[in-house]
Each structure stands twice: as C-alpha cells, then as structure tokens.
Design a protein that fits this description.
- Strands 8, 9, 10, 12 and 14 form a five-stranded antiparallel β-sheet that branches. Strands 13-11-15-16 form a four-stranded antiparallel β-sheet, with no helix packed on it.
- The termini are far apart.
- The chain has two domains: about 350 residues, no CATH class; about 110 residues, Immunoglobulin-like, CATH 2.60.40.
- About 45% of the residues lie in helices and about 20% in strands.
- It has about 475 residues and is α+β, with helices and mostly antiparallel strands.
- The protein has 17 helices and 16 strands.
- Helix 3 packs antiparallel against helix 17 and helix 5 packs antiparallel against helix 7.
- The longest helix is centred in the middle third of the chain and has 26 residues.
- The site of one iron/sulfur cluster (SF4) has 16 residues, from helix 13 and helix 14.
C-alpha cells in the first residue's frame, strides 16, 4: 500500500460521507406571525377532524367506518360496497388533480399546512418547546452532560410523544374497527393481535417520523418533493427571497442608510434559517426541500419591522413577479394561465362525475345467475320452468320488501311469487323459478328481463337481462 494512501477505515468513512450527507440536528426557533397562525389553525383543524371523526355517531352507528371485515365503508348516511370501488378511484383522481392544481397555483401549500408529516412534526415540536424550551435552551440541553434534570426533561418529552403516538395509532385503527368497542378492548386488555399490531405500528411510525426523522422525510423520502418541479412554473406563487432588494446582504446599525453603505435590505441575521423546519437558507434560491410553510416569511417580516424597512423581503411571489417587479394585480392576472385552466376543468369534470355518480347510485342492486343444476324442465300444469339464483343487495339502512317480476315471454311468471325481505345493508341469495305455459313457446333460447321492485318507501328497482331456455 502506498504510504500516502489513507487507512481502510478512513476510506470507509470518506465513502460514507460522500454517499450520505451527515445529518445535523435542526433546532428550529419558534416564530409568530400570519403564516404561523394559519399553520396552527390547520394543525388544530386537521387534528380535531382526525381524532374526533371516529367518535361521531350517525343513525346509531359510527359515522365514518371503513369496515374491512364486512367490506362496507360507511360515510355518514352513505354505505359504499366493494362494487362502488370506482368512487374510491374517482376520489383519488380528484385528490391528485386537486394537488396538481394547488401546486401549480401556490407551490407546496399542502406540505406546509396539511401534510400529516408537517402537522405531526409541528405538534411534536410544540411539545418539545414546552418541555425543553426554545432553540437556545434545547441546544444547551443537548450539549450538557447527563444529569437528573436532563433525564427528567427527556423522559417527560418522550413519554408525551409516546402517549400521543399511541393515541394516534389507536385513532387510526378506530377508522377500521368500531372505535367504541376498540376502546373497551383496550381498557379491558383484550385487544386482538391485529389491532394491537396496527396501533403499535402506526404509533411507532408517528413517533419515529415526527419525533426523529422530521425534515428527513420531506428531503429524502417524499416523492412529491421530487416531482413538484414539473408542476410549478415561473408564475407559481412560492416562498421567495427578493435577491434584487436584499443583496448585497450585510450587518449594519439600525439607523444606518443601507444604500449609502452599498447594502441591500437583508441584514444577514440568519433568523430565516433558524426558524426553517427543514434547515435551509431560502436566500440560496428555490430548493426542493422547501415545504412552503412561510415561517421564514413571518420571521423576516419581524426583522424588517424592527429595521423600519418595508415587509416582504421574503414573500409569497412568483419568479416572474420578482424579476419583472410585478405588483399584486399583475401577479393575480397571471394566475389563470392555460395549465391552471386545464387542471381546473379536469377537476370540475371529476367532481361532477363523482357527485353525479353518487347521487344516481342504485340503492337496490341485483345479479341474476342461472341455476347450473336445473337449467330447464317441464313441471305439472303444462308449464316449462327455468331456475335462477338472484343476488339482491339492499344498500340502504332500512329493510326493504322486494317483489320479483319477469317479462319477455307471453305468460312468463314467477312461480309461487312471494315478496322477499332484504335486511338493511345486506345482500342475500334468493332462488326463483320462472314458468311459461308450454303451449306458448317453442324450442329455443329467449331473452327475458327480471326485475326487483321494492314495495313501499322510496321507489327502488333493479333489473337484469338473462335467458329462458326451452329444450
Ligand atoms: S430574516 Fe430576512 S434579513 Fe434576516 S437573514 Fe433572513 S432574509 Fe436576511
Ligand atoms: S425556506 Fe421558509 S418556507 Fe421553506 S421550509 Fe424553510 S421556513 Fe418554510
């Protein structure tokens, strides 16, 4: 080995540094302001919905329940069956187009205000600040030797994080298992193995992602961060540093005239970097790690206020607006561009299909299957009989009495016709025999229609085409 070459362990560590950026823990500073208020509002709103919804009752049952065991999804007064999976697909497409639209208009708004990763990180950081203090206190605490005080503070923080994580895991499972009985099982320590697994798994994921991974998820794991660049353009509103106004940056006394000193408005205080939850410097330009949270906008506005400079050195603006010195009116005028109109049009069509489809969804469904054992036979009374199995599905939450009718041949009738009762949100198998006088038909296969008509209540019916065989 060459005397100058590094030792193997040095090589390994150099390769490691080259392959993986060494993570520096981010101690983000708390911030107040307009965007922070919005973020707090969104955290509260999304979490009230998430934690509260499974406890909401509707018609005597859980209002929102994705009951995988019975393969029924309850959404308030609506029950979706596996056959309605098209609505789930439409909902996903609508969400995707919604995301495209909002990203094209205003960048990563979703990431900054509504993404679960951001929301839980905010909550976990809020707990951290309450227990350990703000940025400098946390840096000092982490740098100090372990002692009783540090152990007590860290234990308290992790205990609160774990409690919140487990509650989050429990709530998540409560969307798939009736939450009231789930709570009973937790309290009586009789929780099943699968529920236990998912509560712990989701809880662990929350604890790990919001407590430790934090900005690493946004930087390295989230695919949205990678493909957002194809959804934005030079007219998209993004958090932007106005370099023309801010540079050359530099420290100065409050009363100094920056122009006389040949400086821009940025006082190089680095507070915008200190408040950033992903630890980036927005002054370096647009970066895929920026989640558009606006914390740096609030922080910089406060600095501008202190310096008596106009606000907005960092602001929501577009690349074109900054370059061309556009005012608000010109910026708004560029919002409605072809890409936005296309997304908007597609979104309206999808929402229309979704709402229309749901409104016209059949509450009574029927499938007709021929009985393979008894295709056709002649029975006493000069009648030709064919046997069928009807699968009747009542998607409403009230029992329905259903009458079966058949048309398509002279004298075609349901033998021993009795109305059947289909219980609420259930499907049943009902055998029926159809008869036709032998004298009315010749040998052949005839197309007929079987109809199920619900008696009383809201008019409901379902029909299906099949064949009647005369051998
Ligand atoms: S907060 Fe504003 S003034 Fe301070 S460094 Fe950031 S951009 Fe410059
Ligand atoms: S650069 Fe500003 S907007 Fe982007 S993540 Fe950091 S603080 Fe939030």
């Amino acid at each position: 080995m060459n005397a100058q070459s590094p030792e193997p362990s040095e090589n390994a560590s150099a390769a490691e540094e080259w392959l993986y950026e060494v993570r520096r823990k981010i101690y983000s500073r708390s911030v107040t302001g307009w965007f922070n208020n919005w973020r707090v509002f969104m955290v509260l709103f999304t979490q009230v919905v998430f934690y509260g919804l499974p406890w909401l009752r509707w018609d005597g049952r859980q209002a929102v329940l994705l009951d995988l065991a019975t393969r029924k999804f309850y959404f308030f007064g609506m029950i979706l069956w596996p056959q309605d999976v098209i609505f789930l697909a439409l909902l996903l497409i609508i969400s995707a187009y919604g995301l495209f639209l909002f990203t094209a208009i205003a960048g990563r708004l979703f990431c900054g205000y509504a993404c679960p990763q951001t929301v839980y990180t905010e909550i976990f950081m809020w707990i951290e600040r309450r227990v350990e203090g703000d940025r400098l206190a946390r840096i000092r605490l982490d740098g100090s030797d372990w002692n009783a005080r540090k152990i007590a503070i860290k234990t308290t923080k992790h205990a609160l994080w774990i409690a919140l994580s487990l509650w989050t895991g429990f709530t998540f499972v409560g969307y798939f298992t009736p939450i009231v009985s789930l709570a009973g099982e937790v309290l009586s320590l009789t929780l099943g193995p699968w529920q236990t697994f998912w509560v712990l798994f989701y809880g662990f994921a929350t604890y790990g992602n919001a407590g430790f991974m934090r900005e690493q998820v946004c930087k390295y794991m989230c695919p949205y961060a990678r493909f957002q660049s194809v959804m934005i353009d030079k007219d998209t509103l993004i958090v932007t540093y106005d370099g023309q106004r801010g540079e050359p940056r530099g420290r100065r006394s409050k009363n100094a005239d920056p122009r006389a000193e040949g400086k821009g408005d940025c006082v190089d205080c680095s507070i915008c970097v200190q408040v950033c939850p992903t630890g980036i410097d927005i002054r370096d330009g647009l970066q895929y790690m920026c989640i558009g949270c606006g914390a740096c906008v609030d922080a910089c506005d406060q600095v501008m206020d202190k310096m008596s400079y106009p606000r907005g050195l960092i602001r929501y603006s577009s690349e074109n607006a900054i370059r061309n010195h556009w005012g608000k009116r010109e910026q708004w005028a560029h919002l409605l561009r072809p890409r936005i109109l296309i997304y908007l049009g597609l979104l309206v069509v999808m929402v229309g299909l979704f709402v229309g489809g749901l409104a016209m969804r059949d509450a009574l469904k029927m499938n007709v299957m021929r009985d393979r054992n008894v295709l056709s036979r002649e029975i006493p009374g000069g009648l030709m009989e064919n046997v069928y199995q009807l699968q009747l599905m009542n998607t409403t939450e009230a029992p329905r009495r259903v009458r079966i009718e058949a048309t398509g041949l002279p004298g075609l009738a349901v033998h021993d016709a009795q109305a059947v009762v289909v219980p609420p949100s259930t499907n049943i198998l009902q055998p029926i025999e159809l008869t036709v006088p032998v004298d009315n038909v010749r040998k052949g296969i005839y197309k007929i229609e079987i109809k199920a008509v619900a008696e009383g209540g809201r008019p409901l019916s379902a029909s299906s085409r099949t064949t009647f065989i005369v051998p």
